[in-house]
Automatic annotation (TrEMBL):
It comes from Leuconostoc fallax. GO terms for molecular function: DNA binding. This is ParB-like N-terminal domain-containing protein. The keyword Transit peptide does not apply. NCBIfam families: parB_part (TIGR00180). The keyword Ribosomal protein does not apply. GO terms for cellular component: chromosome; nucleoid. One of its GO terms (biological process) is positive regulation of sporulation resulting in formation of a cellular spore. Keywords: Chromosome partition, DNA-binding. Residues 40-129 form the ParB-like N-terminal domain. Belongs to the ParB family.
Length: 296
């Protein structure tokens, strides 16, 4: 797989990121002698995952397909590893390692190279980005790892991968979502557009219920944006005051005395008002008689 010199999703950052040796890793060149390297057989038991691997999910059906191919024809392209003590860490080729184990192989062809942690992390991220192997959350986590572990700024990450800084910023913002909603994105139940719209909710406690509703009702992104706008503009609910025991007792006594509905609105400053309901002129006159009020 050769790297196309035309502009791609990775943009101009590719040229500055890789020297020839790094390009060979991503391209998985079988011609190891081009770099004066040898292909060796390594025991699968001593091979460990790339500690900087951003991809967390591997398609099991595809792994099983690859395992069947390996059983029949073997591993045609060597993996690339670096040595770490008595073990080897994968630089490129984790799918082939996993499939070889499924195929119950003992050994795998490999090229051993020497890379620093920073280069290895970049390699893992770039390889997966180049192959579109990362979902939106894994991509965001990969960008975050570059910033926290290698102290890159968003602008530097964007330059490395050939994207706009805003694309990196928008991706990293997804990590502010609740874990459950991030899982929905990784499982394909919500798109990145859905997720970005949900981030617009002012009350973060509404995100999970809103996500469940979106999935249940099959909302598109435009509908989600409308829902978020509605939730953000809903009037604040006024909490009703709980009447004091004195107010409750007095209301009951007055209703019994007047034989009608009575409402007492008492304020903390001692002020308030009493409302006495009447149903007709005759009912009003009855209440006035109770109050001993005579209106001529």
């Amino acid at each position: 797989m050769a790297i196309n010199n035309k502009k791609s999703g990775l943009g101009k950052g590719m040229g500055s990121l890789f020297n020839k040796n790094m390009k060979a890793v991503v391209e998985h060149k079988d011609d190891a002698t081009a770099n004066n390297e040898n292909v060796v057989l390594l025991d699968l038991k001593v091979i460990r995952p790339n500690p900087f691997q951003p991809r967390q999910r591997f398609d099991q059906d595809k792994l099983e397909d690859l395992a069947r191919s390996i059983k029949q024809s073997g591993v045609l392209s060597p993996i690339v590893v670096r040595q770490n003590g008595q073990e080897y860490e994968i630089i490129a080729g984790e799918r082939r390692v996993r499939a070889s184990r499924l195929a119950e192989q003992e050994n795998i062809p490999a090229i051993v190279r020497s890379l620093e942690d920073a280069d290895m992390m970049e390699m893992a991220i770039i390889e997966n980005l180049q192959r579109d192997d990362l979902d939106a959350i894994e991509e965001a986590q990969a960008f975050q790892a570059l910033m926290t572990q290698l102290n890159y700024t968003q602008a530097q990450v964007a330059e490395k991968i050939g994207k706009d800084r805003s694309a990196v910023a928008n991706a990293v913002r997804l990590l502010k979502l609740p874990v459950l909603v991030q899982d929905f994105v990784q499982e394909g139940q919500l798109t990145m557009g859905h997720a970005r719209a949900l981030l617009g909710l002012k009350k973060k406690s509404q995100i999970e219920p809103a996500a469940n509703e979106i999935i249940k009702r099959g909302f598109n992104v435009r509908q989600v944006e409308a829902m978020v706008n509605q939730l953000n503009t809903e009037p604040k609910t006024v909490t009703s005051k709980v009447p004091s025991p004195f107010t409750v007792a007095l209301t009951s006594e007055l209703e019994e005395k007047f034989g009608t509905k009575v409402k007492i609105d008492a304020h903390n400053n001692g002020k308030g008002k009493i409302e006495i309901a009447y149903m007709s002129h005759d009912d009003l006159n009855r209440i006035l008689d109770v109050l001993n009020i005579d209106i001529n």
